[in-house]
Each structure stands twice: as structure tokens, then as C-alpha cells.
Amino acid sequence: MLWELIATVVAGLGAAGIALLLRKISRNSAPRWLIPAFAGAAMLGFQIHSEYSWFEHQRSRLPEGVIVVKTVEQTAVWRPWSYLYPQTLRFIAADVANASVNQLNPQLKLVDLYFFERRASARRVPQVVHCQQQAQADFSATLQIPPPDTAVDGQWRKLAGDDALLIALCHS
Predict the structure, then answer these.
(1) Tell me: the pLDDT tens digits for 66-75?
(2) Alpha-carbon span 8 to 104, nearest angstrom
(3) In a 3-state reduction of DSSP, which class is residue 134?
(4) pLDDT tens digits, residue range 97-109?
(5) CA 123 to chain centre
(6) Which of 44, 57, 126, 163 has its CA 20 to 30 A from that of 110?
(7) 30, 36 Cβ separation under 8 angstroms
(8) What backbone phi and psi angles, to 5 degrees, belong to 62?
(9) The whole model's pTM is what?
(10) Using CA atoms, how far apart are residues 70 and 89, in angstroms rounded to an integer?
(11) How confident is the model at residue 172 (pLDDT cuts 50, 70, 90)?
(12) Measured between alpha carbons, how far is residue 135 from residues 94, 158, 163 in Å?
């Protein structure tokens, strides 16, 4: 975040320098307000570009075998351009390459989900996915592993048949 702040200030200073150069070339006939207007527009433009390119940059840095299973697009009143083109400021990635199959019930797979959010550290949350019953549960010491061909209990959340996590883990 510090580097982004520094880059924003540098963009503003660079644009202010261009406006100052334009004033000098025009022998000071260009209005003085051009300098802060250029600086503000450059800083705002850099921030907008940074917010829209964040998701693609983060996705390109994911290791092989880690796939994006959900994105969250957001709009905000203080970002009116986001109503035209919503911004992806959060996403979930699954480490499918390192998912492991349960030895007692081969329909269960343990996978690490990574929760990414703009301007926040990534969080790792281990999850258990039941491929046959299309359900998901938080991995914990209290999680009851169901025997094969039995129903899951209330600790499990149902997944839609077209859920990206379910497809990535169970249909590959």
C-alpha cells in the first residue's frame, strides 16, 4: 500500500510538471489552475487504473494449480464509474493441485481456499468438499466425517451443481 501511495504522488507530480511545462511554453497564458487539475486527474486516473488492474495482476501471480473459483464485483457511490464497469475487489482461489482425498470416504476432498481482498492480506481457509452430496464444510477438529453413502449433517453447506469449486475438484 505504501508503494501505491508513492506511485500516486509521483503520477500527480509528473502531471503537474507537464502542466507547468505547458504554461511555460504558452508564456504563462495557460491558466494557473491547470497545474493542480492535471495533478488531480493523474492521481485519480492512476487509482482507477490500479483498482481495475488489481484482480488480473493478482490472478497472474497465482501458482499453477490454484484457480479462481469466485469473484466479487462491487459498485460504490464514491466510485461512479463502477456502475458502468463494476470492479473486482475480492476473489476466492482454490489450491486444486494440492487437494487431498479422504482415506475413509473417497468422496471427500480437503482443499485450501484463499480469500483475496484489495488492500488486505490473503487468508487461507481449509475446506472439505463432499463430491457426491455436493456439500462443503469448514475443516476443523469437530467436523464429523460421514461414512460413504450417508447423508451429511448440519455442519455442511450445500453447493450448486454448477459451483466452480465443485467442478474444479470433483469433475477433473
Answers:
(1) 999 999 999 9
(2) 54
(3) coil
(4) 999 998 888 889 9
(5) 11
(6) 57
(7) no
(8) -70, 140
(9) 0.84
(10) 11
(11) low
(12) 15, 4, 10
